[in-house]
Amino acid sequence: MNFYQSKLNAIGGSDYGEVHRVALDAYKKIAKRTKRRPYIRAVYFKKAKVFLGAFWDHLWQKSWEDRTRRLKFYLCALDLIQNSRLDPETRDNPNNFKEVVHRFSGKTKDGQIFCVQIKERKKDNEKYFISVFPYN
User: Fold this and answer.
1) Exposed, middle or buried by CB within 10 Å (0-12, 13-18, 19+), for 132?
2) Structural domains of the chain, count
């Protein structure tokens, strides 16, 4: 399995408030650049936009501990999306046949392995950052 080597460490802290503040600041910085939906451009998808809003909706469906665990890798996930040229594991979405799910693997600067999921709609090729989580 190929991993993208991120230049960043995971966000430090064990309290949800600490980790959330750092991740939300990074999101707000990106959101300020546009009047519409916040996005970043992905090298792997030939500089196509990857929208970030779906991640926050997905995150609120999780427990407090799981939110903290996932948010720790938020900055590394953004780095991976923007800079990775490695091929992801790509599958049709089992819950919706109109979508494809791409799963990228990455490694933080301090050696923790994580996965990033990006959902792509087949109809219009729009891409959405869905999830980031540590690899078990």
Assistant:
1) buried
2) 1
Asked if residue 3 lies in contact with residue 106, where contact means CB atoms within 8 angstroms, the answer is yes
Residue in this structure with the two tokens 């791409």, named with its chain if needed: 102
CB atoms closer than 10 angstroms to residue 19: 22
Q: Are the CB atoms for 47 and 127 separated by under 8 Å?
A: no
pTM (2 d.p.): 0.93
Domain range for 90 = 4-134
- Cβ neighbours, 10 Å, residue 94: 8
1 pLDDT more than 90: no
Note the pLDDT tens digit of each residue in 84-136. Answer: 999 999 999 999 999 999 999 999 999 999 999 999 999 999 999 999 999 87
Residue 76 DSSP code: H
